[in-house]
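Example record for the data management plan.
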Amino acid sequence: QVQLVESGGGLVQPGGSLRLSCLASGFAFSMTSMRWYRQPPGKERESVAVIRAPGDSTDYADSVKGRFTISRDNRKNILCLQMNSLEPEDTAVYYCNAQIWRNGAPLDYWGRGTQVTVSS
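Corresponding structural encoding:
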């Protein structure tokens, strides 16, 4: 079965850094485009970054460009998000997402999320 398990969240001061990880299993990770989403308190979920497969091209939301880096290790089935120069506005639950095509239709799979809080 498809499983996505995030880790690495926590409390950090403005200007600090965190590295999030997502351990994936139950599907062809190396063949699947992966995304990080986040949902701030009281707001809608938004896409943060994507890394595609094949080819590993990346794109970022304007709000995180130059500060966040998405990467993947296909041997370990791990998706990462390096977050630098964190701001209070980055406070959110961060989710790992995989869109898997089966029987001609896309299915979205989600981890349970990890909390990131940026506060002094």
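Summary line stored alongside the record: The two ends are 40 Å apart (CA to CA).
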